Amino acid sequence: MTAQLDLLNKPSGRTxxxxxxxxxxxxxxxxxxxxxxxxxxxxLAYQPRWAGATREFYSVAEHCVMVSRLVPPAFALDGLGHDxxxxxxxx
Length: 91
What we know:
Elements: E1 16-18, E2 24-26, H1 37-46, H2 60-70, H3 76-81
Antiparallel strand pairs: 1-2
């Protein structure tokens, strides 16, 4: 697990993002090692799928859950994480 910055000494907003869980994501040396899955899920839940072009709000997370239910059970985890790379668009 990557060493975390002391939360009383919050990282600069120019060099790190303090995630909802308190995990400090270093933008200069990005690594998600040790990041709680809840931070990833939360970010994808707020990221609109198809750039928000749908009539109703439809998140990347909602899409991933739907895909995980459509594929054979052996591939459900792959379906759930197939768009996790869209997390990198959040900044």
